[in-house]
Amino acid sequence: GSMPSFSRDGSRLAMSESAQTVVLMGSMDDTSLPSSDGLVYVYDAGTGKLVGPPISPDRRLSPYAPFIDLGADGKGLLMALAGTLALVDPDTGAAQRAPIRYDTENKSRDAMERAVFSPDGRTLLSHTAGRVRLYDRHSGAPVGKVMRHEGEVTASMFTPDGSQIVTAGADGTIRRWQARGVGRDAPGTPTGAVLR
């Protein structure tokens, strides 16, 4: 499962099975959310009400809850599960595009662990133990180069302006990578010094 995900504008909250209870200020004080059923629930953060039916990830892929992220405007829900990125409408659960199959080299090591939208919502970041990869939200095509550490990648995130990706690795390093650009500055190109 994954942590709850708010849309960037704060209007929506998505939960998957691992989250037992969330306490929010305002109209959702002390609201207990469903858990342990493998479904994803999307709530209106202002009213505390479900915005649509629970969303069922493809259980043929994995029995576990997906990692989830809501798009900046709350109009896209990204689910990462067993090597697949699924982009669905958070209100209906309908697919917004065909699933993106992660092009793993070693499926046992590179099972999908995390996926997030870029701040502008146009790019998807997938993070596995072995690497980080970007995909175009609309076409599903890989963008730029694969980003790796000497060991496992333990964390990844976009900078707030979306221009770079920061990763941390089990090798004790923090690395920065281009998230936009072309040629020598293509996405996935290392930038700046490696921090130890």
Shape: globular
Compute the separation of the termini in Å. 30 Å
Order of helices and strands: EEEEEEEEEEEEEE
> Helicity level, as a percent range?
under 10%
Number of strands: 14
Provide the gyration radius in Å. 17 Å
Q: Assembly type of the shown chains?
A: single chain
Which features would summarize this protein structure in a list?
196 residues; mainly beta; four-stranded antiparallel β-sheet; 14 strands; 0% helix
What does this structure look like?
The chain is mostly beta strands. The protein contains no helices and 14 strands. The chain has strands at residues 5-6, 12-15, 41-44, 67-70, 77-81, 84-88, 100-101, 114-117, 123-127, 132-136, 142-147, 153-158, 164-169, 174-178. The strands form four sheets. The protein has a four-stranded antiparallel beta sheet, with no helix packed on it. Strands 8-9-10-11 form a four-stranded antiparallel beta sheet, with no helix packed on it. A three-stranded antiparallel beta sheet has the order 1-2-3, with no helix packed on it. Mean pLDDT is 80; it is low at 19-36.
Summary?
The chain has no helices and 14 strands.
Write the layout of secondary structure elements.
Layout: E1 5-6, E2 12-15, E3 41-44, E4 67-70, E5 77-81, E6 84-88, E7 100-101, E8 114-117, E9 123-127, E10 132-136, E11 142-147, E12 153-158, E13 164-169, E14 174-178
